[in-house]
Amino acid sequence: MRRLFSVLFATVAIVASSFLAQPAFAAKTLPAPQISFTRFVLSGGTPGAGVSNAGGTLSLTSGATDGTWLSPSQDAQFDFDELVASWNATTPSNTWITIEMAATGSGRTTKWYTMGIWTSDPVPARRTSVSGQGDADGFVATDTFIRAKKAAPLRTYQLRIGLHRSGSSATPSVRFIGAMTSAAVDKYDIPSTPYGLGSVRDDLGVPTYSQEIHNGEFTELDGGGEAWCSPTSTAMILDYWHVGPTDAELAIFPGPTKPDGTPYTDPQVDFAARAVFDWNYNGAGNWPFNAAYAGSRGLEGFVTRLRSLNEAERFIAMGIPLVASINGRLPGFFFGKTNGHLLTIVGFTTSGDVISNDPAVPSDGEVHKIYGRADFEDVWLGGSGGIVYVIHPIGGGLPANIPGLPNNW
Fold first, then answer.
1. Nearest 5 degrees, angle CA 228-CA 230-CA 232?
2. CATH (domain of 311)
3. For residue 5, is it within any domain?
């Protein structure tokens, strides 16, 4: 369950009609959270020496070992406090990419912060977050840029992508770059009104995998399955889309049997844990690394924030399950409370409660759970500010964004 929160959303007040003697779905009294998501057009921007952006894909030119691409300056549409970048790339052996961000506001531009160093190659030093970047403007908490409390407002930003190879003629190729920006929120209207209240709800039939059955496996990866909530959730979504690791891949890692000779159960979870592992954070819960792993399997994956379960329901209605980040006490949760946990949203009941495949249970048969709508929004919106991984086929449709609000997917 390891995902400790240090973001501004970690402690919020909740305006929750379900906790008072009021109707279940009260009228909204608070403004919508400020969130925006931008997809950058890779055929635009500024490719530096050594980089081609032909056809909307970034790659190294012949003979180049390093190169950069610079995005246009992007207006977040409000003063933002946090930013999470996302990327999808193909990184053959001995290739990797770096993702950096600089922001502008109040008459100054920040330094470049490293948001991640990514490769699918299991070389530890080349898939990592970067610590120790904090200054007067802000800092990077694993995967999230956070504006310093006393820093002046920030409004626009740029991303810079570095492409690298060593001892290889193969090139990394980047096909998707995006970023979510958000302003800090201290209150939410909970519970939200269900989308299409009274209509038939969906349960998408996502495979069920327990992280707990992997306790003791590959303990060099943050102690094993007890900490693998994020890759277990991601593995469920990949198998829903039928793009999980092949038998041939699983024969290489984790291999056919454990050291004691017994076969692995759900070995795609072990595979995912290694594929997303952040060797600086020493954990498998790096949000964009999980999305990037999905991208490496031929899907589009990105991290954003949603404003309520009403928005999440729009994805379920289109057959797209989500991975959600929670923090706090959740009635019905196997451990009672969590300091940071990832689980899936795979459907909704007719009354608007959440159907979740929650990996924090002792067996696969116990993964499928129902959580109360207000309870879930409390630990999801109040815990992570509504963080989700959106993982879906390339070119597949997404729900329409909410009219009158900045696009947040």
1. 65
2. 3.90.70.10
3. no
* Res. 124: pLDDT tops 80: no
Q: Give CA–CA dist 138/149, Å, rounded.
A: 8
Q: Are residues 43 and 94 in the same domain?
A: yes
**For the whole prediction, is pTM greater than 0.90?**
yes
Closest CA to 327 of 408, 374, 389, 387: 387
Enclosing domain of residue 235: 190-393
Same structural domain, 75 and 203: no
Using one digit for the tens of pLDDT, what is the confidence trace for 281-291? 999 999 999 99
Q: What Cα–Cα distance (Å) separates residue 388 from each residue in 125, 131, 301? A: 27, 23, 10
Classify residue 310: in a domain, yes or no. yes
**Number of domains making up the chain:** 2
Lookup result for tokens 């991303």: 159
20 pLDDT band, cuts 50/70/90, is very low
Q: Which residues of 266-295 are buried (b: 16+ CB within 10 A; e: fewer)?
A: bbbbbbbbbbbbbbbbebbbbbbbbbbbbb
